[in-house]
Each structure stands twice: as C-alpha cells, then as structure tokens.
Design a protein that fits this description.
heterodimer; A: 569 residues; alpha+beta; seven-stranded mixed β-sheet; 21 helices; globular; B: 307 residues; mainly alpha; MetI-like fold
C-alpha cells in the first residue's frame, strides 16, 4: 500500500515547480525594465534625471592580485586603480589619444626631444583635500622603477633614463650605496611643486601615451610609508587624486567607492560597488535579478540574450585591444617562402571565422596588424584579404608547390584555441588543399618553445594585447627586428620596416608619424610574418538606467568615469 | 585517554612535515610560474628573472624548502607572490567565512538527516522512507553546482526571492548553506537509517523492550546511541570537508571563502598560499579525525581508545 507514495511525492514536487514557474512574469520584465524604456529620456534630461542616492554595481570578476598602481598589470586591478587615481595624461575615450589629465597640457618637449616636462593643473587635490605636488608624481614614477617595489609592469617605463638599469638590479645582492647611485641616475625629477621633468633615452613622442598609464599615477610617500606593504588595504592610506575614493575593500567580496568631492571635475555618481563574480553564468543571473547593472556577455549566454527582445536591446559591442594571429617561423620550410605565407594568409575566411568560432564576439582582422578602433588601424591594408583564387595561384608559384613538407600548427592547449586552430586547419585544407596537423601543447611548454627562434615551431599561435594605445606599442614593440615580442619568435627582419617605425617613433608631428606607421604596417602585412586572424571584442549588457558611459577599448566603464551616473528608475 | 590524545597530537608533527614536503614538491613540479599568466602580453624574460630573484625562487629547491620550514615553525608563512597580502592575513580573513558556511551547512544537514534517518528506519518501507530515499538519491547523485544553478534560476532569477550571490546578510546565506548541506544531508540520512535499522534488530534492543522500557527510552537511550557510531565516523571528515570551504559552492555564489582562494592560488602558482592553506587543511582534517576517535569512547564504552 505504500508503494504508490514516492510517485505522488514526485508528482507533487513537479507540480510545485510548475506552479512556481507559472506564478511569475517573463524572467526579464524586471521591476525597472518594465517601467523604463531603454535610453528613452536620456537625451533631453541630461544629468537632471540622475538618482542622487543610486549605487552602480558592476562585476570585477575576481579579486585583484594587487591594487598597488606601481605593481599592477591586470585589467581588474587597473579598473580599481583608475577609479582612485589619475595620471598626468588620460585617454580620450573616442580617439584613445592622450589628453591632459592631472597635468594642464601635454608635455613641453626640449629641443633635442629628450626632456619631457609636465605642469600640474592649478588646485589639484588629493581626495582628502590636500594639494597634489609634482613630487608625488615623481615619487610614483620612481617607485615603479624601484627594484624593491617588485612591480610587473615597470618595463614600460624603460624609455626613461636609468629606469632599466636600476630596475634590473639584484636587491638581494647590491649594496645600499649602489642602489642609491642607480636611483640618482633616474631621469625623473620634480623641478618644483608644479613641474615634473622626465629625461628619456631617445626622443619618444609616444611618452604622452605612456603618461596615461597606472604605473605613472602619483602616490603620497607618507601614505605608502605609513601603510607599508599594506598601504593599499586601508582607505586611510589608499588615497588618490581620481574621480572616486575607495571606502571599503572586502576581500573576495566587493569594493566600495564613493565620489571624490575634491576631484578636478564634478563626479555624477555617488557610490559604485565592484562585486567579484567569477562565473559568467552567475553574473548573467545576477544581472537578470537586478543585482548587477552591467555584465559581460559570453558566447554561452549570447543565444539566451538574443532570444529575448528586452535583453537584446540592452546589449552593446565593446571594442577590444588585442590582435590574435598565426605566426610563422621564417627560418623553417615551407614558411621561409613568402608566397606560401601569403597563400596561407589569403585563404582564411575571417568573417566566417568570427561568426562560427567566436559566435560573433570579435572582429575579423580586415585591416592590418593594429585592431579596429585603435590609433593606427588601417582599413586600406588589404594585403592579406580573403581571396582563394589568388591564394591558390601564390601557392602554385611557390618553391614548395609540388613538395609541401609536413606542417604542424603548435599552440597552447585550451578549448578556445582548439576551436580556432581546427577552423584554420579546415580553411587551409579546403581552400589550398594543404594538410596541417594540429599540435596542442601545455601552455608552459609553449612558452618555453617560443623563447628562441631555434625551438620555435614552424607555425604557431601568437597574439598581442596593447600596453598603451599608440602605434609604437604595436609596430615597434612587437615587430622591430630582433627584440620585438613577435619578431624575436618568427625571425622577422625587414630593414625598411625598422627604418620607417624608427622614424615614426621619433617624429613629433602626429600626422607625419601616423603616416609613417601606416606605411610600415602595409610592409608588415605584405611580408606576412604572421596571418592576422581576428581582433578581440566583447559584448556587454547594460541596464537602461546606467547613463553617461564612454565605451572604449578600455571597457564599458574604463574611461570618462566622472560622467557615469544612474538615472531614476 | 589524555596520554593517547597527547600521543596523537605529537604524531601530527611528522604528518604535517610530510604533507608540507609532498605539497611543496608537487606545487613546484607543476609547470608554470606565478609570473607567466598572460600569453598575449607576456612579461619580458628579464622581468620574470628579476621577480624570481626578489622572491627567492631562483634558489635551489632544497634551500627554498628549508627556508620555508624554518619560517613555518615560527608560524610565518610569508606573503603571497601575486597578491600584496600575507598568507596569515588571507587565512584570517577568508577562513572564518568558509567555517561559518560549513558549520551552518553541517548543522542544517544534521538537523534534517538525523530525525529523517531515524524515522525512515523505524518506519521502513513507508512513504517517509521512500521519500527520504528519493531525496538521498537526488542529494548524492546530482552535483552541488548543478543544484546551485537550478536554485539560482528558480529562486533568484524567476521568483526574485533571494539574491544570486554575495555574503554577509541572512538572505545571501540561505542558498549556499542549503545547497552545501544537501550532499552531506543525503549521505547522513542514509547512514543513520542503515545503522539505526541494524541497531533496532539487535538483541539488546529486544531485551530493553522485553523488560518493559518505554518505546522512547528504547529508541533514544539504547538504539540511537549505538547507531550514532558510524555517523560519528563520517562526521569527522565531513566537518573538515565542510569548514575548509567548498570551492564549487563558494565560486557559484561568490562567497568570499578560503576554498576559492585556495583554488586561485593553485591556478596562479602562488606557492606560499598553497603551502599555508594546505597545511591548515591537513591540520584540520587530522584534528577532526582525532576528535572522532576520542568521541568513540564516549559513545561506546567498549571501544577503549589508547589501547
């Protein structure tokens, strides 16, 4: 007689679940979403519609490793630092070019192009109201170069005289006197309370772009000394000159920021919370539950978003700052033949790649090496454009036309990489009739392999994400003969490319420099030491009540932070 | 008993030493370093070498291990290699959260499992028994993170009753506590039921009934006390497992606990944190097992610990 009961219990559970599902409206008609038409009243009401007590809640993903500006290097860390601090220069959200931040203007450059002097704005203050001095900036830069700071990102300042020498010293072995002597040679000097001067190793007009970075934000020596290693932990010592001040850091849980009343511009948002949700599915649920105002969209939940009209209207594209490409070892057959490299480059359907492999979250590499949206992007660079007929012709003309050696495509094993490489493998097989074997290896093995040209595989995955948005950080940093991040691996060496980028790096006229970089970029694409595959991009969901955003390659909220606000809803 | 406890405590020293040795060796044998985590913006080789030097990672392995031991006996576990925080601070801030979540889940599991298990045994093959079997099957077979995602979609996204993530207020603790307790609850229910079933068929229970004791006295005073021994056995490891933090539950609900931090430290090859947290876990598990062994003596006088 008891036999029936478990089934009735099960039936009860199921009906309970059904009732629960039926009792509520469609999941996305959240209280706010139902009443506020996305973006409707914003244009006319400006900031008048701002909710004075609203808190913006965004997701940082995971706990940052370090929020010490002179050590940090990861996106989440920078998101915290740049809420609290401001450099001499900042990035224009539209062009990603440097414009004055804490400094009143771009650097005054000496006639030999080696000395860069910035003058601070009048009345710039720390969030506690005391004045910011040029000495605080000098201290910040000095601290980044200091080997004792053990920063990961100090190398971007190696263009400053003495930074590399001092930074490379062995703090465990060098004497205090030796360290001091190296420090004294550093080309960073506060001339007075208002002016800070940098002496560079070579003329570098791109230094204004470097001055936008977190490594060059000011710090008050007294705060750092008082807090010691933990100066970043406490709101009492983690004091900055940026639009917000950190008021609380609950580890692995959240950050709270409040408006800095002493910022040089009015800050519209009163309070901003960063939460730390690792799982994208959870963040998506939190967004639907109105616990998050902004969240990223991954290819996994893209379909759910697109199937829902409300969510779809809240989705935006966010430009990225990486180029992902397939690199060739120019010393190993068959890629020592330009025609083979070009045939490979021209036989990849990048638009189909982005659609199928990336589910549309990315941009086909339809220009040169520099991604769309970045200074130096060249839409006219079509050297590697998809053209199967031309690719076949090139291959038939190559010295390996009749006897193609076996080709292995080596990459750090990951799910995404496997998808990417299989697609490319298929393209080369279909369009060129060339068999390419896939060779996934452990990521650290891969890192070891590509350290020297001798061990670098013939065909391998490469990529570059910028340090700062300037052509120098793309062309010269990555492809200059010998020392470049990718040229060292591929063995790329073209004196004409070096000459053009060398000229451009020193050129003080921005228009002339841009033109030189464009010429250099075209040569690079024609030499095809790599096949540009795609530019990274992302998608985000933004609640309609979040206004004043400047969406850029620095993210949805990375730039123009003082203008962000939450409208009444 | 006291002597036995002291002996067992002393035995902890070599145990922890070997845990430290094995953990150290395995952590270093895993390829990678704390400084090579972004393949598309790799740190220059010179920078990596400089950082290795600063943190002493360029020294020979045995030298690093001796240094670690020397500091560890003074309870100095150093600082994280990638975070600006001391290992002790990370543990101090994150462990209480995991412990609280674990204790809540354990108490909830016990509060449901013990009565349910006992009733299932007393009325076996009844509706309650089958119900508890169904529940136990679900609880043990469906992974907690799957249940967690279902719970989020039902109670947060659709019904808007509870927050999706976070910690610190009661409403935020409800889902993670319940989901974390389900697995142990199901297992404890089954084990209580089984050992209770066995106990009530024993001669001494029949004897107790025969001499006219009330049903309540028979069940609580005689059957249950003996039935608790297997339960206590699993309770030790369960407690250690629950309070050291469930990585999955902490990740899904974004709970700022030690479990998440631990997995993070392995992923980023943060050797000092790996060592510190592993040793803490080893100590807790050993302590839990010791406690269980001592409790045996209380539950069943026939078990003489220390002999």
């Amino acid at each position: 007689m008891h036999r029936k009961t478990p089934w009735s219990l099960l039936a009860m559970l199921i009906s309970l679940a059904l009732v629960a599902a039926a009792c509520q409206p469609a999941p996305t008609t959240t209280p706010g979403g139902a009443t506020t038409a996305p973006g409707a009243p914003a244009a006319t009401a400006a900031a008048g519609d701002a909710d004075p007590d609203a808190t913006l809640v965004t997701n940082l993903g995971s706990e940052p490793d370090s929020i010490d500006p002179h050590k940090a290097s990861f996106v989440g860390e920078i998101a915290v630092i740049m809420n609290v601090f401001e450099g001499l220069m900042i990035l224009d959200p539209k062009t990603l070019k440097p414009i004055p931040g804490a400094a009143s203007a771009k650097a005054a450059v000496s006639s030999d192009g080696l000395k860069y002097t910035y003058t601070l704005r009048d009345g710039t203050k720390w969030s506690d109201g005391s004045p910011v001095s040029a000495k605080d900036f000098a201290y910040g830069y000095t601290r980044t170069c200091d080997p004792a700071t053990a920063g990961q990102y100090s190398y971007v300042l190696y263009v400053i005289v003495g930074c590399e020498d001092w930074n490379s010293m062995d703090v465990t072995k060098a004497t205090a006197a030796e360290l001091q002597a190296a420090k004294d040679k550093l080309g960073v000097k506060a001339l007075d309370d208002k002016r800070v001067e940098f002496t560079l190793n070579e003329p570098a007009p791109y230094f204004d772009s470097i001055a936008t970075l977190w490594v060059g934000v000011p710090a008050r020596e007294s705060d750092v000394t008082k807090g010691g290693d933990a100066w970043t932990e406490s709101p009492a010592t983690y004091i900055g000159n940026g639009p917000f001040k950190m008021t609380e850091w609950k580890h692995n849980d959240s950050f709270t920021f409040e408006r800095n009343e002493n910022y040089r511009l009015p800050v519209k948002l009163k309070k901003w919370t960063y939460v730390m949700i690792n799982e994208t599915a959870v963040a998506f649920a939190a967004y639907q539950n109105d616990q998050l105002d902004i969240t990223g969209v991954t290819s996994e939940n893209l379909r759910a978003v697109e199937a829902d009209a409300t969510l779809k209207a809240q989705m935006v594209d966010v430009p990225g700052d990486c180029d992902i490409y397939a690199g060739y070892n120019l010393k190993k057959p068959p890629f020592d033949d330009l025609k083979v490299r070009m045939a490979f480059s021209k036989s990849v359907d990048r638009a189909a790649f982005v659609e199928t492999v990336l589910a549309g979250i990315g941009k086909p590499a339809d220009g040169g090496f520099i991604p769309v949206g970045q200074p130096g992007y060249d839409p006219a660079d079509k050297a590697q454009a998809f053209d199967v007929a031309a690719a076949k012709k090139l291959l038939s003309e190559s010295q390996y036309a009749t006897a193609m050696p076996p080709i292995k495509f080596t990459f750090a094993s990951s799910n995404l990489n496997k998808l990417i490489m299989s697609f490319l493998q298929q393209q080369w097989k279909t369009n060129l009739g060339v068999e390419v074997a896939l060779d996934p290896v452990e990521s650290t093995v891969f890192t070891q392999l590509v350290k020297s040209p001798e061990t670098t595989p013939q065909l391998f995955r490469l990529g570059w994400c910028l340090d700062f948005p300037h052509e120098q950080n793309w062309h010269s940093t990555v492809w200059k003969s010998g020392a470049g991040v990718s040229s060292a691996r591929t063995g790329y060496n073209n004196p004409e490319f070096d000459r053009l980028t060398g000229l451009a790096d020193r050129e003080t006229d921005p228009a002339k420099a841009a033109d030189l970089y464009i010429q250099a970029g075209k040569i690079l694409s024609q030499d095809a030491p790599a096949t540009w595959i795609y530019y990274t991009q992302s998608k985000a969901l933004i609640k309609p009540w979040v206004k004043g955003l400047s969406i850029s390659a620095r993210g949805v909220t990375g730039l123009g932070k003082h203008d962000i606000y939450v409208a009444k809803h | 008993m006291t002597r036995y406890a002291i002996q067992r405590l002393l035995l902890l020293v070599p145990t922890l030493f070997f845990v430290a040795l094995i953990t150290f060796a395995l952590a270093r044998a895993a390829p990678g370093s704390p400084f090579d985590r972004n393949q598309d913006r790799p740190l220059p080789q010179a920078t990596i070498e400089r950082l290795n030097r600063i943190y002493g990672l360029d020294k020979p392995m045995h030298e690093q291990f001796v240094l670690f031991l020397g500091n560890a006996v003074r309870f100095d576990f150093g600082s994280s290699l990638v975070r600006d925080r001391a290992v002790a601070d990370i543990v101090k801030q994150q462990f209480p959260v995991s412990a609280q979540l674990g204790v809540q889940a354990l108490l909830l599991a016990l509060a449901i499992a013990l009565p349910l298990g006992v009733i299932s045994a007393l009325r076996h093959n009844s509706a309650v028994d089958y119900g508890s079997l169904l529940f136990a099957t679900i609880g043990t077979t469906i992974p907690s993170f799957v249940l967690a995602i279902f719970a989020i979609y039902i109670f947060s996204v659709n019904l808007h009753w509870l927050p999706v993530f976070g910690w610190g207020t009661v409403d935020k603790m409800v889902l993670p506590t319940i989901i974390l307790s389900l697995g142990p609850m199901a297992f404890l229910t089954r084990i209580t039921r089984a050992s209770m079933l066995e106990a009530i068929r024993q001669d001494y229970v029949r004897t107790a009934r025969a001499k006219g004791l009330s049903e309540q006295a028979v069940i609580v005073g005689h059957a249950m006390k003996n039935a608790m021994i297997p339960v206590a056995t699993v309770l030790g490891p369960f407690t250690a497992f629950l309070i050291t933090g469930s990585f999955l539950i902490e990740t899904v609900f974004s709970v700022p606990g030690l479990g998440r931090e631990f997995v993070r430290s392995i992923g980023s090859r943060d050797y000092p944190v790996i060592m510190g947290v592993f040793l803490l876990f080893a100590f807790l598990i050993a302590a839990a097992n010791l406690t269980v062994d001592l409790v045996y003596g209380v539950l069943d006088p026939r078990i003489k610990v220390g002999k």
